Amino acid sequence: MLLCPAAASPPRSSVDPPHPPTLRAVLAALVAVVGFVTAVAAAPAGPADRRPNVILFIADDVGWDDLGTFGHPFMRTPAIDRLAREGLRFDNAILTISSCSPTRCSLLTGRYPHSAGSPDAHQPLAHDQVTFVDELRKAGYYTASVGKWHLGDDASRRFDRVIHDNAGSGADHWVEVLRNRPAGRPFFLWLAANDAHRPFGPGHLVPPYNREQIPPPPFLPDIDETRLDLGLYYEKVTRLDASVGRVLEALDAAGLTRTTLVLFLSDNGRPFPRCKTTLYDSGIKTPLIARFPGLIAAGSAAASLVSAVDIAPTILAIAGLKAPAAMQGVSVVPILKDPLAAVREYAFAEQNWHDFTARQRCVRTTRYKYIRNFYPDLPNTPPVDALRTLTFQAMRRRRDLGQLTPPQKNCFMRPRPAEELYDIVKDPFELRDIAGEPASRPILETMRRELARWQRDTDDRGPATRRPDEYDRETGDRLPGAGPPRHGPVD
Hints:
- By secondary structure, this protein is of the alpha/beta class.
- The protein has two domains: 2-11 and 23-349, Alkaline Phosphatase, subunit A (3-Layer(aba) Sandwich), CATH 3.40.720; 360-457.
- The protein has helices spanning 23-36, 78-85, 100-109, 113-116, 132-138, 174-179, 224-253, 281-284, 311-318, 333-337, 384-387, 390-400, 441-457; strands at residues 2-3, 37-38, 53-59, 88-90, 93-94, 142-147, 161-164, 187-192, 260-266, 289-291, 300-302, 306-307, 347-351, 360-364, 368-373, 419-423.
- The strands form four sheets. Strands 7-6-8-3-9-10-4-11 form an eight-stranded mixed β-sheet, with helices on both faces. It has a four-stranded antiparallel β-sheet with strand order 13-14-15-16, with helices on one face.
- A hairpin with a 3-residue loop joins strand 14 and strand 15.
- 51% of the residues are buried.
- The model is unreliable at 4-47 and 487-491 (pLDDT under 50).
């Protein structure tokens, strides 16, 4: 079934915070959908092809709560905030991993990283995997990937056009490709930014952020080094927002806004200690936004759980195509129609090698997070790009002086508990592990059982041997005998 846009609901005032729609708004959206759902064949429909276009923005290393629409008090992200005002904000969207390339392979295939054959960082998309881009292209869609490329050589054949741009913002050719697409065909654009990946530094053509306004999260120390580091990161997030804004303006100018599903998300959390490469929400919760006027009620928000593996079947459903049986996600079209709907009770994520050996798994509901540490003897070391920073090195000094709080010691803790459990509603920063509390035993047993079932169903087996670290866990220096780097200048 092809989901065609109808008359859009009037947008909220830009000063109103996003909120769940009223019953009247939900009913209006459902009536619009019912009146404009049309059956189509999967084959191209010629010059009058009216199938929806799709644009997927992928931010690089942007935390879910580092955007204005997700509650950041002073972040300057007007374009992304506009998407939320005109669309749907997902408040519980969970990635399958907190690592760049495995996330992207998971998005493309609708499969978990270990199932898709790319569990570790820097592994290419496997040749035998079927992606939603393959299905769109077979059905006559024009497909292009523009910006950061982190999928390997073979993946290029999935798209009609690929522009690798692993320098600067990664967004220099976004608008150009949109404008120069073939006429008369629906299109899919994979627009991958380099922002806000490290290295940071001034010169992003945006006003700097005031360090006095920057309160670090409680798992990072409130010191000058952290505030300076976060301020430079914020500048890159704002540059990303400007890149998104230019594409939205080009869609408006071309008259394509009402016929294009726009999705925005990030591949993992911010590149700071206890964020990227962890299974805390600061690592795997993503700022997912969807806009499709007429199908999605403007200014809506969904609290129900969705997973990154759900993106591929959702895009195919919007295009009127059936998801391949190998895809492990489910379509979230019911939530696009009705933000109060639900499509899953549990979301699952994994963490594997990314600069350092790792093996963790987690299961999350809208209330609880359970983490299983298979290598509890190892600390929660951040990726090497975060490890070499002023922030982490200052944390090392403060650790040695006994000046870190228990949550700030997380990335140095060894051994770690084999199991962690958090009440995300009461403890959104996941600072209090309740796994050992007697009152938590029933939920702990349930989460253990669900994780074991998921591992069995997805054939998640541990490796015979541990893949070794590539860098020193304290200094970030390359270890002797590690061989050449397995990745390019952006990872």
